[in-house]
Amino acid sequence: MPVASPIRVRGTSMGTERMCRQRLQAPRSPGRASTDLFKFAGGRASGVARRARIAMYKACTRGGCSLSAITAAIDAAVSDGVDLISMSLGGPVEAFYDDLVAVATFGAERRGVFVVMAGGNDGPTASSITNVAPWMTTVGAATTDRVFPATLRLGNGVVLTGQSLYNIPFSQGAGTIPLVSRDCGKYGDLTPDRVMGKVVVCSKGEGAWAGFDVERAGGAGMISADSRTRFGDAVKAQPFNLPGLQLSSTGGKKLADYMSSVAYPVASFNFTCVTVTGENRAPMVAGFSSRGPNPIVPEILKPDVIAPGVNILAAWSGAASPSGSVMDPRRVEYNILSGTSMACPHVAGVAALIKKRHGDWTPAMIRSALVTTAGPLDKDGRDIVDSGSAVGAAVMGATPLAAGAGFVLPRLAMDPGLVYDAGTQDYVDFLCTLNYTVEQMRQFVPELSKCERTIPGGVANLNHPSFVVVFDGRSRIRTLTRTVTLVSARPERYNVTVAAPDGVKVTVTPATLEFRWPKEKRSYSVPFSSEAGAKARPAGTWEFGHIAWENRKHRVRSPVAFKWDD
What we know:
The protein is α/β, with parallel strands linked by helices. Helix content is about 15%, strand content about 25%. The protein contains eleven helices and 30 strands. Strands 7, 8, 9, 10, 11, 12, 13 and 14 form an eight-stranded mixed sheet that branches. A five-stranded mixed sheet has the order 23-30-29-25-27, with no helix packed on it. β29 and β30 (about 555-565) form a beta hairpin. α1 runs parallel beside α2 (about 100-110). The longest helix is centred in the middle third of the chain and has 18 residues, at about 340-355. It starts with 8 loop residues before the first strand and ends with a strand. Residues about 1-30 have low confidence and may be disordered.
């Protein structure tokens, strides 16, 4: 089916594809003082790359997103001459030659088009990450310091804090409404004889859409309190149609414990309808953000980076309700959404800014700039933590399997100092190193007659801005090589710093890199050794470190993941 070329318009993307009608807007007009959802997250808003021209291609319908439509949209975008493609889509992980999206985006890379993709929302399960080809930039989701607090006072006096986008402020006396726990996963299952006049605690059926079933059955309110670990302690705010709030997994467990300890559980709501910023720890890796290791090629670290993906204000289509329920009559211009689909466009915006400043950079150079300047620390200078790592207990630091290189930092990415470059031939060699047949290789390069070469030392030696080192029973020493290119305007000298787990020796040769002119390249090698006598690691153990090239102006940091196999 032919795909029409886009109308070329100027405007601002708010992080999701809005029904464009030949214009993009945020705010709607210069006279509009605020963009918001029900007065939450109010203020003037813009996307990351405010002056970017945006071309939009329809690849999905109400019934889903067919692979043929997705690949047709990618091909049309490349044909139209776009500089980058942002895709908040994902599906089951398959071998690259069987993955039509991987094949289509390889074609985009051949034409110099940067591709950024959402990593998926199936965390915190290991190897749940999707869109894992090395020519894609894969993005995980992180929280921000903006919350929409609402509280629930239990009959025993304990106060639980959650989040809500219910927009009618009020406070009730303690213990005024009875609680009842129900499975809200299927519309029509709730009955008035069980929930009339009560607050329904939905153990399943996350999302404000369940509120319409509660309302239909005469419920007085609802609490979304799934105590499972999918979302961890990062709470997604929901636009409830009746008094309701979303609790974290820890809060949900506390509520469940209370309800099981008394015969007649009761609670009261307090809605202040305010937006609070700057008080909570952020960024944290969202519990739902899909995790590595890479299920296809473990030697390629995924995700690459994380970006804001929880409670994001985004432009919204007037064809859908804010809750997603067909029972919801409300229509809004902006919504508050969560997912790696929200994180992906943030990185696309940063990539657009990089491309504007450095028009001759390859997609790999842009990806390298994003990765090597990403921050491993939160806004208060502490290690970024993983909200899905230890629900109900002390949170743990986010590893590169959850956060990649860290939180994307736009200003640093504009001037990375050094980059790790790779081109089409490098990716062809990578695929050949996977022992793909000529027939399989022709999915990517139709004119290929045979694999001319592979990557010496294996796929881990692809010139990627991160490292994965796999120790196995045959060898406790792995040597990897990389080549960096100077992208600063003046000569520079870099010295290396290394962080590694106990019992792992990392030697970088040379330890100093001298660059005399822009675009000069320098290579280095890194023998990694798991030393004899070090602590025993069971097969499947992962530990982490980094390699950084530094001078007074730049710090070019690459995460390193170590795995021990049998």
